[in-house]
Each structure stands twice: as C-alpha cells, then as structure tokens.
Design a protein that fits this description.
Number of strands: 33
Helix content: 25-40%
Shape: globular
CATH topology of the largest domain: BirA Bifunctional Protein, domain 2
Number of helices: 16
CATH class of the largest domain: Alpha Beta
CATH superfamily of the largest domain: Bira Bifunctional Protein, Domain 2
Strand content: 25-35%
RNA sequence: CGGGGCGUAGCGCAGUUUGGUAGCGCGCUUGGUUCGGGACCAAGAGGCCGGAGGUUCAAAUCCUCUCGCCCCGACCA
C-alpha cells in the first residue's frame, strides 16, 4: 500500500480529551475517530488491526469446534420479556419503535436470541453439544463511556454460547473456552489473569474474567502474593484475624467528634480495626443493619447477592427514627426487630467499639457473640490491599487495576428454563439445555495491546496483529537510486505476500520517521542515499534501536527471517 | 444521576474579568529554497465564536434557556 494514497490521519498534537495512553495513541496514529460519546469510526488502519484480532479469535474458536454465525442486532421486545431483561437491563438498553409502533431494541448481548434459535432447532441430546459464536456489534447505552474503546456504547464483541446436555458437558465447554481464550490473548501478545467474578445481570452459577493488568483499567482485582488466588474485588474474600480488644464489659464512652471511624479512632487512640462500622440499609421497607470491621468497606455487589432484593442506604432521618441517633453513632446493639448481617470476619471479635445509639457516645467492650444477634454471618466486605489471602496461609492480597477483556459465564438453565429451551435426553425425559456464554471485547484487546506495547514515540504492534508487517521508508525520492531500489523492494515484498506500507510521500525524513514510529508497524526498512553509498539499506524492528545494514538483494530473505523470529513470540 | 471542566478556522489554544475591526501556533493552497528524526522564506485560503432567545447604539464577551464533549464519582457483562 502506498502511503500517499492511504488514509492515515495522524496528528502531532495530543487530543485534549484523551487521558489513557491507548486513547491518545488510537487518535494520534489515526486508527479511530470519535463520532459521538462512546461511538467511534474505525479508520482503515484501525480496522486492519481489528480484523487481525478477529482472525485470531476465529481460528481459536474454530479449533474448539465453535461454529460462526451472525445474529440480528435489531430485535423485538417479546424475547426480552420472556427473561424479564427488557426491564432489568433498564436504561442500558437502546430501545426504539418500528413504524407500526412495536417496541424494539438494539441487542446489548444475545442470550435470548441464541436461546430462541436453540429451542426451535434443538430437540434431541443427539444434537448436543453445540458451540455457536459470532463477531457482532453490540449496543449498550452506558451511563459513562470512557477511555475511547475501553467502554463504548457501540462495540464489537465475540460472543459464544455453549449448549450442553448436562453439567459435565458445560464444564467441558467452559474449560475449552478458557483454554481457547488463553491462546487468543497469548497470540495477541497479552498476558492475562483469570479471576473469579460476579455474574451480575447475566445470571448463572459461576463466572470467570480474563483481566489485563493496567492502570487504565476500570476493574480492581485481588491477587495473592503467595498462591494462585485471584478474584475481582467485587467477589474477593479475605480472612482477617479476629480482634481481641482489651475491655470485657460494655461501657459508654463520650465521643464528642464527628461520628466517622476515622475521627473516633483518633480521639480514642485506637486503630480502626477495633471498630465496628454499623451501616443501616433499607430493603423491602425494613431496616437492615450491616456490620463490618472499621478498616473495611461494605461491598454492595456482595450485599446484593446476599439480600436478593433491592436495597439502599438509609437516609439521616430514617437512621434517627430507627436508632435515636445520627448516622455515625448508631449500631444494632439493644435495638429490637432489626435484621443484622455481620461480616464473617467480625465473628469472635471482642472488645470492639461501635455506636451507642446516642449522639456523641460510643460503646466500648462490645463482644460480637455476647452483644449482637445476627441473622447471618456473611462475607460482605471489600478486601483491602495487604489483607490475608482467603485460600492459603501466610499469603496476602495485592489489589491491582485491570481491563476486563473477557467474561465467561456458566449460565446453567437460567435462559433455557425461562424460555423453554428443552431437549429429549437418552432416557426419554425432557430437560432444559445447559448453557454457557462467553464474551470477548474485541476493541479492548486493541487498547490493551497499545497499553502494553508503546513508547514515547508511538505504538509498537506485535507482529501477530500489526496492520502491516513492513513499513518501507525511502528518503529523498529525488534520488533515482533511492526511488528505484525502494520500488523494487516494495514489489518483491508484495510478491512474497509480505504486507507493506511504502511512504512514497514527498516529505522530509524526520516527518516520515515520526509517522512510522507513531503508527508502529513492526519492521521498518529505510532506503536512503547515505546507506546506499555503502550498497545497503537499513532494516530495524520498531521496538528496537538496532539497525541492520542489508544489501537490497538480501532484503526479502532478511525480512522473512525477522518475521519468522517475531512470529515465534506470539505462537499458539 | 451528582460534582468539576470545556465548546472560538481541520487540530491545539488566546481573547470573555472591564461589551467596540476575531487572533496565535500547527495543518492546508501556490511559488521558491531545503532534504537521515515532525525544515525555512514569501504570498494566500479558511470562523454566524455550539444553538436559541434576551439586554444594548453595539455581544465571542453580560443575562436566560438549551445541545454537545471530556474528567471524577454513582451505576454497569
């Protein structure tokens, strides 16, 4: 491809809206352009990268007997009513009406569509298992799109769905996906961490996420520094040692400071872990106390899972009515008729401090076992950096930011039950199909790769997903030799199916070098009169400083070897 | 949805406090000189100052209302 005729609108100045490195470079290198909030145009160079990523995904999905299909984006309301997701997706779903005033939506995901297809076509266990996948645009009206392609309202997802006869089959499909995904990310040059996660709106029994560690990430994950424990902080557990405070009896302590754990801890000169944070929630119009240790926060994702119904934090008036004190001085101690959920890490704690239900007073010497009557001990806190690992002894947790690249769900029968997707098993009985769903964010891979492979000058594409393999840079085209030799090399590369971008523009050398480094094509060939005087041109990898002097006749051979060497790093 | 910031030439910005000819850098066009890390000279083109209303002799500037974008938070596969 000739750069003089190729559309790569690079920009020298950093766009003001971009914060994350991937966002900045996607715009500067002319890969994408914004159209609206969370909606982008993919320009030729960006599309080439996306296509490469998709090709790797296809190869690995086909390898596990996945079958590619393509489902509609525009769908009717009825299917979504069957699973109640017309409502539960809420504002995140783009909804519209057709000319006959029928409710439609742009599919945010495709469980309902795939289940509908399956229930019409799958009758017998003989037709199972199946893995169906697609590379399809999804629409989600995100409340806050960010970081260019990190969170978009229109994006490409590879989503696949497994249909199995039983739990064992699901387990197998799930494992196959995990392995395929590992290979996909490895081939794209990314290292990932697989973490346990919350299944949220998708439902189902278990879910794993493939995470790429990055400060640009929106998710936080907890990793053990000793064993292999890894979980999204939304679900990460910990195992804190029970606190044994010094006071045995409950006593009232005057605490004339704002009722935060911080302030009272300072006043009493006690570390925060000696406190019980008592939070009052309202759910089903009933007060619910949630108790956690003073140095930790309530994890509302976990709370949602425990309560199984809607809830919200109580407002100051409600708190006062229920306890007689302002928020900050409250606790369930000596209160009647309140549901109490206590974090499991508070079990057996003694000598604790918490609100006395009287303004500017706290109780000291509280014993969980003696003074609190919980409905249930539950895992309800967000793990902090340095907390003990819940899985091994001696390990502690690190909290890292990460980009969620993929999410795998064991859906079980959630969709097949509600949508009546049944098959007849070998014993003649009718059973619901056991399902799994497995998504990959295609553009997020692109962003993660840029996040990992760049320097101050621009992108350094791994050869496996690079938009071109070779960037050929003739300097000073007014020199006949430079022009002729670079044209010859260009033709040879093309004949050998080595995708090449030749910078045939009438620009100064520095300009061409800067563009080449910004775009980040992995192999650069420089043809200039200076090195031609020694009978050579120069070949270098974008990611290295080292230049190789190579005779024009040997360029093809040299480049072939380079490509082969590079490819090894991103092999399956 | 809450908080903050911003909409002026294709891009990045100044001008708004204190109303009075719309500017700068990059990019673009033409000509010339240059040519191994985003050159230089000269001459040009290009803007209803996001939109609508209002105040005023006069509005990019003041007032009201709107639309959009970005960041933080909430929310979220």
């Amino acid at each position: 491809m000739r750069l003089s005729r190729y559309f790569i609108p690079t920009v020298k100045e950093t766009p003001k809206e971009a914060q994350e490195i991937s966002h900045i470079l996607l715009l500067k290198a002319g890969l994408i352009k914004p159209l609206m909030s969370g909606i982008y145009e993919y320009l030729p160079l960006g599309l080439k990268v996306i296509t490469k990523i998709q090709q790797i995904i296809r190869e690995e999905m086909n390898q596990i007997n996945g079958q590619e299909l393509l489902l509609p984006i525009l769908t009717g309301r009825e299917l979504w009513e069957e699973t109640n997701r017309w409502n539960t997706f809420g504002n995140e779903m783009f909804k519209l009406k057709d000319r006959n005033d029928r409710d439609m939506c742009l599919a945010p995901t495709h469980e309902e569509i795939i289940t509908d297809l399956a229930r019409r076509e799958i009758q017998s266990y003989r037709q199972l298992p199946q893995i169906w996948y697609q590379l399809q645009t999804k629409f989600r009206d995100e409340p806050r799109p960010r970081g260019a392609v990190l969170r978009m309202r229109q994006f490409i997802m590879k989503d696949s769905y497994s249909l199995d006869r039983n739990e064992e089959g699901l387990e197998e499909s799930f494992q196959m996906h995990r392995e395929a995904y590992s290979r996909i990310f490895r081939r794209c040059g990314l290292d990932t961490v697989v973490v346990g996660a919350s299944s949220g709106l998708m439902g189902g029994s278990a879910s794993d996420e493939f995470m790429f560690l990055s400060e640009s990430g929106e998710d936080s994950i907890a990793l053990c520094n000793t064993c292999d424990y890894a979980a999204n902080v939304e679900v990460a557990a910990t195992r804190l040692k029970p606190i044994q405070g010094d006071k045995e009896e409950i006593t009232e302590v005057h605490t004339p400071v704002p009722g935060t754990v911080e302030a009272v801890a300072n006043l009493l000169a006690k570390p925060k872990e000696f406190f019980i944070k008592s939070l009052l929630y309202i759910g089903n119009n009933e007060p619910i106390f949630v108790l956690v240790r003073g140095d930790h926060e309530v994890n509302e994702t976990k709370l949602a899972g425990i309560l199984g119904h809607q809830f919200r934090i109580a407002n100051p008036d409600e708190a006062k009515n229920i306890t007689g004190a302002d928020i900050g001085y409250i606790s369930p101690i000596r209160l009647e008729n309140v549901e109490i959920y206590v974090d499991v890490n508070l079990k057996d704690c003694k000598g604790m401090i918490t609100g006395a239900n009287k303004n500017e007073y706290h109780f000291a010497g509280v014993s969980i076992e003696r003074d609190i009557n919980p409905k249930q001990f539950v895992d309800i806190i967000t793990a902090n950096e340095g907390d003990p690992c819940p899985q091994c002894s001696g390990g502690s947790l690190c909290i890292k930011k990460a980009i969620e690249l993929a999410h795998l769900f064991k859906l079980g029968t959630k969709y097949s039950q509600s949508m009546k997707c049944f098959f007849t098993d070998s014993d003649g009985t009718e059973k619901p199909v056991i399902m799994g769903s497995y998504g990959i964010g295609v553009e997020r891979i692109m962003a993660a790769v840029i996040d990992k492979y760049h320097d101050s000058a621009g992108i350094q594409w791994p050869i496996s997903i690079a938009p071109f393999l070779v960037h050929l840079i003739p300097l000073d085209l007014t020199f006949e030799d430079v022009k002729n030799i670079s044209e010859r090399i260009y033709e040879e590369l093309s004949e050998n199916d080595i995708s090449t971008l030749i910078d045939d523009r009438d620009e100064r050398p520095g300009f061409k070098f800067k563009d080449a480094d910004l775009i980040g094509i992995p192999i650069q060939i420089i043809v200039g009169k200076r090195s031609l005087q020694n009978g050579c041109c120069e070949i270098k990898l974008r990611k290295e400083d080292r230049k190789h002097s190579v005779s024009p006749n040997e360029v093809i051979l040299f480049v072939r070897n380079l490509i082969e060497e590079e490819r090894k790093q991103y092999a399956r």
